[in-house]
Write a structure and sequence with these properties.
The complex is a heterodimer of chains A (110) and B (337).
Chain A lengths: L8 E3 L2 E3 L9 E3 L2 E3 L2 E3 L14 H12 L10 E14 L5 E16 L1
Antiparallel strand pairs in A: 1-5, 2-4, 3-6, 6-7
Chain B lengths: L10 H7 L9 H7 L7 H16 L8 E6 L1 E5 L2 E7 L7 E12 L4 H8 L7 H6 L7 E8 L8 E8 L6 E6 L1 H9 L4 E7 L16 E8 L7 H6 L32 H4 L11 H10 L6 H4 L7 H13 L10 H9 L1
Antiparallel strand pairs in B: 1-9, 2-3, 3-8, 4-7, 4-9, 5-6, 5-8
Classes of the chains: A mainly beta (110), B alpha+beta (337).
């Protein structure tokens, strides 16, 4: 954990469908690399966190402290990948669906 | 036509299934998950489509959804009729193409000729025994309305030439499926009529026909779309607002998608109410009901699902209700949703 970067970045998360109770009807994959975003979006934000213009302004306002209660911008998924899932429907027929935004490719401060 | 692959051909599928997205599963495992009838063509076909998507990243059939439908065999007038229940298709799924996959038996006459006519015995008696070309196959589709037991509306018929050997074939039935769906008749029957009085014993289950529907689900880009088809336990079980109720304690772990509404909607709260500035939130917690007009104030605190259901029925039957007074059609639609 101490090696985890403090700045907003993508972290590893493997999701096993059995852990969330979906394995009864999901045939494949049994698990996938979902990743997640975590970390600070502190002023000054480096380019690597790909801040939106709004996030840049928000972080400045927060750093200056002129408006109380303004939080840091959020560290959220920026680019995401789809995932094909083969599962059984209610009638136990096999269905293949390609779900968008299932795993994180990059994170950003927004 | 396409040949029916055997399970020995699945090592190629294994490579796709054991890619970086899924390092734990072999095709055998996946087939086992498909159930006891897994070693049939539809299971193999779906696994191959999945493998192909994982390998190439190209959406299957140009859309984002492929649904398979297994046949249920029934003998009607001593002839096999295959029934398909297509009702699991979602309204948001726009059908791109649909195909009927079936196994064509080889015609029976070549065997008879082989018996009576040796390769070089082309005498007159042998020629007399040759019964001529085999009869054409007729593939007939009918749709059935869910509430009727009648044979159903003829949706399409096509004549096929039997292949010289047993062979899996596919026929485009996009127009048939689209028309059946448009008319709301999603119970479909298919009959392979050989013209013979006694078509013989039905095919083994591994040769059962199936339908594949390639579709583009327009709702898949909606937020939380994965929950619609994959999250099958009730996120708000019956006792969620009752003291001592455990989360996710619904008796039926696989509830219909109708239960997958967001909490604000279940609470009859206006979406976005929580987005007001922070100081206002505190006041909102105590005076939430003041945002509502008078008819909603009459609503009593939430009750359990069963009670709510009973209450709905009461509301429906009692025309004098002061809370909601929808007509029957609207209520039925609401319940379905």
């Amino acid at each position: 954990q101490w090696d985890e970067p403090r700045v907003c970045s993508r972290r590893y998360l493997k999701v096993d469908f059995a852990d969330i109770g979906w394995n009864e009807w999901i045939i494949s994959p049994k698990s996938f690399d979902a990743y997640y975003c975590a970390g600070a979006c502190e002023f000054p934000m480096p380019k690597i966190v790909r801040p939106s213009n709004h996030a840049t302004i928000q972080s400045i306002v927060r750093a200056v402290g002129i408006v109380p209660g303004i939080p840091e911008p959020c560290c959220v998924p920026d680019k995401m990948n789809s995932l094909g899932v083969l599962f059984l429907d209610e009638n136990r027929n096999a269905v293949l669906k390609v779900y968008p935004n299932m795993s994180v490719e990059t994170c950003a401060c927004r | 036509g396409h040949r029916g692959p055997s399970w020995s051909s699945l090592p190629s599928a294994a490579a796709g299934l054991q890619g970086d997205r899924d390092s734990q599963q072999s095709p055998g495992d996946a087939a086992a998950a498909l159930g006891p009838g897994a070693q049939d063509m539809v299971a193999i076909h779906m696994l191959r489509l999945y493998e192909k998507y994982n390998r190439r990243g190209a959406p299957p059939g140009g859309g984002n959804t492929v649904r398979s439908f297994r046949a249920r065999l029934e003998m009607i007038d001593q002839k096999p009729v295959y029934f398909f229940n297509l009702t699991s298709m979602q309204d948001s799924e726009m059908i791109l193409t649909a195909a009927f996959h079936f196994y064509s038996e080889p015609p029976r006459w070549p065997r008879a000729r082989e018996v009576f006519c040796k390769p070089r015995a082309k005498n007159a008696s042998c020629r007399l025994l040759t019964p001529g070309l085999p009869a054409r196959l007729h593939l007939i589709f009918r749709s059935l309305s869910q509430n009727t037991a009648t044979q159903g509306l003829l949706r399409g018929a096509m004549a096929l030439t039997p292949p010289p050997r047993g062979l899996w074939q596919a026929k485009d039935i996009s127009s048939i499926i689209k028309a059946a769906r448009r008319d709301g008749e999603l119970l479909l029957s298919a009959q392979l009529d050989t013209g013979e009085k006694d078509p013989g014993v039905p095919r083994p289950s591994s040769h059962m026909p199936y339908i594949l529907v390639y579709a583009n689900d327009l709702a898949i880009s909606e937020p939380n779309s994965v929950a619609v088809s994959l999250q099958r336990y009730d996120p708000f079980p019956a006792g969620d607002f009752e003291p001592g109720a455990a989360p996710n304690s619904s008796a039926d772990p696989r509830v219909r998608r109708a239960a997958q509404v967001s909490k604000p909607l279940q609470d009859n709260e206006l979406p976005g109410l929580d987005e007001r500035p922070a100081p206002a939130l505190h006041a909102q917690n105590f005076h939430k009901h003041e945002f509502w007009s008078s008819p909603f104030r009459a609503l009593k605190p939430r009750t359990g699902r069963k009670d709510r259901k009973k209450k709905d029925q009461d509301t429906f039957t009692a025309a004098s209700s002061q809370v909601l007074d929808f007509d029957e059609k609207t209520m039925q639609k609401a319940r379905r949703r």
